[in-house]
């Protein structure tokens, strides 16, 4: 399909199945009885590559916007629970739908801007991969070039990770206070900077526990699928599988994907509640005039 988007080129063909004088012809007006006017190929459309690049960037932007929308909606739902003074009586009904409505009505521009930043970084990373591939094809990837390319790839990878972390907390700030992206990102950055040790501790413990949870789920599914396909199906159902390892691997991969999706929700909940806790601790002191919004269990744990 992409090739046929170019301009069709027709050439004359004689009776011996060889190109005549390689002259171009138009099949609509060609009337030579000794030669045939046949399709020789397609001339590449110069705009095709530009459109491919345009759509690729649009795909990156759209994917990051969907991720940002999900994070902002979840942050709004979890924050509405945290800042409910009398839990659970003050928690709004249908918090996820309420957060979705607020996000779509007020914050789509901020989410699109944040998604565009990540998309630009990912686009640059794709360009670096393309350049690296072309250098390898032309045998110009000497030691120095490889070193420079690896350094640039590493820097862009680190930049994307840092921006994703900052964007995630910016979306939490947007969901809580309704600020624009730049204001929310700046406030989130300085809030996390003032509590750097807490952030490092919580993120480290959270990442470890969520990873253990994913491994546990995948392990259970893997063991269960092994006994199902290798023992139960072959012995009880009397069905012979030539390669039982294939469905087992598919089940394990599917379990990892599903577990990652579900645990991402828990990860967002932890980040949002932690962000709300930091805001609550800085804005309130537990007095009658400025009471804490955190739950009693959280106060007992933190000694507030």
TrEMBL record:
PANTHER family: CHOLINE TRANSPORTER-LIKE (SLC FAMILY 44), CHOLINE TRANSPORTER-LIKE 2. It is found in: Cell membrane; Membrane. This is Choline transporter-like protein. It holds the Pfam family Choline_transpo. Keywords: Glycoprotein, Membrane, Transmembrane, Transmembrane helix. InterPro entries: Choline_transptr-like. It comes from the Eukaryota. Signal peptide: none annotated. GO terms for cellular component: plasma membrane. Choline transporter. It is a multi-pass membrane protein. The chain crosses the membrane at residues 56-84, 104-128, 200-229, 241-263. One of its GO terms (molecular function) is transmembrane transporter activity. Its main location: membrane. Belongs to the CTL (choline transporter-like) family.
């Amino acid at each position: 399909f992409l090739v046929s988007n170019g301009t069709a080129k027709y050439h004359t063909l004689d009776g011996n199945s060889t190109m005549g004088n390689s002259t171009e012809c138009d099949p609509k007006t060609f009337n030579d009885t000794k030669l045939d006017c046949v399709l020789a190929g397609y001339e590449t459309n110069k705009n095709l590559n530009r459109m491919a690049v345009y759509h690729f960037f649009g795909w990156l932007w759209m994917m990051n916007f969907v991720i940002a929308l999900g994070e902002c909606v979840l942050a709004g739902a979890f924050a509405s629970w945290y800042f409910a003074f009398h839990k659970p009586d003050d928690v709004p009904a249908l918090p996820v739908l309420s957060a979705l409505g607020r996000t779509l009505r007020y914050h789509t521009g901020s989410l699109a801007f944040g998604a565009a930043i990540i998309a630009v970084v990912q686009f640059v990373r794709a360009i670096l991969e393309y350049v690296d591939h072309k250098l390898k094809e032309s045998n110009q990837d000497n030691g120095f070039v490889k070193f420079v390319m690896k350094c640039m790839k590493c820097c862009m990878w680190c930049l994307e990770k840092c921006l994703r972390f900052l964007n995630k907390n910016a979306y939490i700030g947007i969901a809580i206070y309704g600020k624009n992206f730049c204001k929310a990102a700046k406030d989130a950055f300085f809030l996390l900077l003032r509590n750097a040790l807490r952030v490092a501790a919580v993120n480290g413990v959270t990442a470890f526990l969520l990873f253990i949870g994913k491994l546990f789920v995948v392990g259970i599914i893997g063991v269960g699928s092994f006994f199902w396909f290798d023992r139960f199906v072959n012995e009880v159902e009397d069905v012979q599988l030539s390669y039982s390892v294939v469905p087992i691997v598919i089940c394990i991969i599917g379990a990892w994907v599903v577990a990652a999706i579900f645990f991402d929700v828990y990860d967002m909940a932890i980040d949002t509640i932690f962000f709300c806790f930091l805001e609550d601790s800085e804005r309130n002191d537990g007095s009658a005039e400025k009471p804490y919004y955190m739950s009693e269990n959280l106060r007992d744990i933190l000694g507030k």
